[in-house]
Amino acid sequence: MSDRAEAAVRVIEGSLRKRGRLRDSHITLAHGSGGKAMRDLIEDVFVGSFDNPALAALEDQAVVALSELASHGDRLAFTTDTFVVNPLFFPGGDIGTLAVAGTVNDLAVSGAKPLFLSCGIVMEEGLPVEALRRVVASMKRTAEQAGVYIVTGDTKVVERGAADKLFINTAGIGVVPEGISISARNARPGDAVIVSGYLGDHGTAILVARNELALETQIASDCQPLNGLVETMLRACPDLHCLRDATRGGVATVLNEFAQSSGVTIRVREAALPLRQEVKGACEILGLDPLYLANEGKLVAVVPAEAAQRVLAAMRAHPAGEHAAVIGEVTGEQAGVVVLQTVFGGERIIDMLVGEQLPRIC
Amino acid sequence: MSDRAEAAVRVIEGSLRKRGRLRDSHITLAHGSGGKAMRDLIEDVFVGSFDNPALAALEDQAVVALSELASHGDRLAFTTDTFVVNPLFFPGGDIGTLAVAGTVNDLAVSGAKPLFLSCGIVMEEGLPVEALRRVVASMKRTAEQAGVYIVTGDTKVVERGAADKLFINTAGIGVVPEGISISARNARPGDAVIVSGYLGDHGTAILVARNELALETQIASDCQPLNGLVETMLRACPDLHCLRDATRGGVATVLNEFAQSSGVTIRVREAALPLRQEVKGACEILGLDPLYLANEGKLVAVVPAEAAQRVLAAMRAHPAGEHAAVIGEVTGEQAGVVVLQTVFGGERIIDMLVGEQLPRIC
Known about the structure:
2 copies of one chain form a homodimer.
Chain A: H1 3-19, H2 36-50, H3 53-56, E1 62-65, H4 66-70, E2 75-83, E3 89-90, E4 93-94, H5 95-108, E5 113-124, H6 129-146, E6 149-158, E7 166-176, E8 192-195, H7 201-209, H8 227-236, E9 242-245, H9 250-262, E10 265-269, H10 277-286, E11 299-303, H11 308-316, E12 325-331, E13 337-341, E14 347-349
Parallel strand pairs in A: 5-6, 10-13
Antiparallel strand pairs in A: 2-7, 3-4, 5-7, 8-11, 8-12, 9-11, 10-12, 13-14
């Protein structure tokens, strides 16, 4: 074949390829090479799913007008999170759901409207392409639910044994509306502390999925985007003081961060913690403290006392907040202390998590 | 000890801790727990190195005024890249240099001024803390060189054997100045094709570092930020047509992307390719094609013919472009074709990389 004829055949294949499917059943090192196999993978699995103009251009970066961003507020929020959860699939979600919801939530708790995500994937050679497709479909679904676009990405493949199946990093960009100022430093004595629902569902679901529990439970991960809930809360009270999603380290770690950053004491009533019976049971059997269990769709808010009932009512009217509860309040006793008032009437200090409770929970 | 006394001791430790050093010699699963050990690691190794106000606040997201971004241009550029290079340390750089320079370069080739990076790290249990410190020091140095800030991050630890030592994802934000419009779709017949210097240094350096070459060479990776060079080029010619750094897949892959996206032929003269003797030698011995070797501090530019000598002169006056050369030109013969005119007077089609040349090159 002459060079010309060869080239013509290739170009026709090229344009067909965009509409076709990747034929490989498993990921190989070639899918991370920067060459043809990688381009096929990206065009089929990613561009085909995340369909949006920025990604389809396949430049090495996505570009968006600052004027468009400015229509949402006056400050850019930027965050990142890597997901290494084991197993990849669990009741209530998978690593893809987690990778989108996690970064959306890190943006949302700054008060930002999440807009764009990046997606960096590390795959182990031999990963079934069908597993990747399932994960990407979850990312797409969760991104739609949150109203964000995945606009730029990168894929790497490492040899068998150099990574455990699949890791996903997402970074996110959002815009904070004017006048919103949420920070871990803003808790004031008198403020109310609210959680948005049942605690510990994600941590328990992962334990069950790993068969580390000798229990039959129906617990599903609470993995979900929280930006809609946060918008509702901000409409009820634009002056939310602190907001953070309670992921690794659980509610206890978030409360300690608030108490330390704001120089206050936070008092929590054990009886007020929203806990499912199954989670309570699992914690009792395994000696785990639900305050340290990971959540992937729950937030902790510190709000002015006068707004507490208004915010709570707004949260309960939202699907992501129906089981929201006031769990305690802020006092000025001491800087950096979290105190639990137990159901037996005693008190104990709730410290930050020491050591590791459950590795690879997210 | 009463609760009060215990709390007071902890708070004093807390404030000392920020100025102290992490005492562990190796990374453990606790350093990824979301709890105290992770906070110690982040405060000591990361915040201590990347020192900037956004990161020091230790919120889950960095926030920057849109008005500040608007002072640099009218469009936001957003990109991401994950680095899994093996080995972590090699002549000329390490995974940290690469992680900063790589993302800076992906922004720079859109014409954007790179401003902020995120950093998502996956560590294998048992990684020596000193290795992490060295990598973080390289990230800091490269970020300073490029004039960017690392403003937000995340660390995960996986159990021994679930990852190979250390993977780093960086996402980056930059701003594109008004009037700049660089795209792989902009190559026009008559345009000149320029590369910014010697090709294949990074790929060869990694091969040598892996002891896969039975050669004694002094080749160091070309790993470096290119945003300064791009600024110089844009001053010489604001109308640069295409620009891309030639990483995985090498110059051949970039030229194919330009040819396909622009619907043109690109003709390259083999004799004009800037190649070090050592790289040429290694390629001949191993049967590698230098056009496919990875670079980590080289770019390919397509510029209007009338501007070619002006751009070339500007590049050669910059340390990152002293060996820049015009290597070919764009023609309208056929869409999506790259042709090499060999030193023997023949012609051959240069396709995108098929299969995998060197896994984990970046």
